[in-house]
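Progress note, sequence design subtask.
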């Protein structure tokens, strides 16, 4: 086996860049869906909710301010659940937690697509908060590189960092990192574009578009779990 192939074999399928690229599409789609159809908010991260809560409390709007505790808590709960469940899932010796998560997420977005737009948006918002937290906390590193699939702030920073390093030192790794972070941002953006284009056509069921990248990712991961990585179900992805 060549050195390149040995290096590639170190990583689980759930750590591959192409899985993170697919999930970045999901992240962009969910952000566009909640903003366009479910209350005009982004539910993939919590910086905005903390900021909005602080603004409301600063204005003395206590009831409005304390509402933001709900989505923040949902995000926190999603993180806690995704920390607790991997251990009992490993004992099943069937599929990895990462694979189960994609199945759970696919089922959840399928159910969300049946909720009419006339329903108060908070239920869908909180549900997406929970799902985004689990996805972010579960898929942490792509082939040893810290990555996020539900927001792109750090990826944009990394694009600048690795572009400068490439220009200064002309390192192949710097150029590769620059390209990979750029691709994540591009696919996140593309997911948002596609979702926005279809929101007016499919309405609440537009969220089902996320089932395409989710199903592809689930198929890849479940096949790996049941075949070539069957003996690695106990192995933790890097960063966990």
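Output:
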């Amino acid at each position: 086996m060549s050195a390149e192939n040995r290096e590639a074999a170190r990583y689980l399928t759930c750590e591959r860049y192409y899985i993170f690229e697919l999930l970045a599409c999901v992240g962009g789609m969910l952000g566009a869906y909640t903003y366009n159809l479910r209350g005009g908010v982004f539910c993939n991260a919590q910086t905005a909710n903390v900021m909005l809560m602080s603004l409301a409390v600063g204005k003395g709007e206590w009831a409005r301010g304390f509402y933001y505790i709900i989505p923040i808590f949902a995000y926190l709960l999603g993180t806690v659940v995704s920390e607790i469940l991997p251990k009992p899932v490993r004992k099943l010796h069937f599929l990895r937690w990462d694979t189960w998560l994609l199945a759970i997420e696919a089922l959840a977005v399928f159910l969300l697509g049946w909720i009419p737009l006339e329903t108060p948006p908070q239920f869908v918002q909180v549900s997406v908060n929970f799902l985004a937290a689990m996805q972010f906390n579960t898929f942490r590193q792509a082939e040893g590189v810290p990555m996020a699939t539900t927001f792109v702030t750090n990826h944009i920073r990394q694009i600048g960092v690795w572009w400068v390093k490439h220009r200064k030192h002309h390192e192949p790794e710097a150029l590769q990192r620059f390209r990979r972070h750029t691709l994540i941002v591009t696919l996140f953006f593309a997911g948002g574009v596609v979702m926005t284009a279809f929101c007016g056509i499919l309405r609440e069921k537009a969220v089902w578009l996320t089932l395409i990248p989710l199903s592809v990712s689930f198929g890849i991961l479940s096949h790996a779990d049941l075949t070539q990585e069957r003996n690695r179900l106990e192995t933790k992805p890097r960063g966990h």
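The first strand starts at residue 141 and ends at 142. Work on this subtask will continue into the next period as scheduled.
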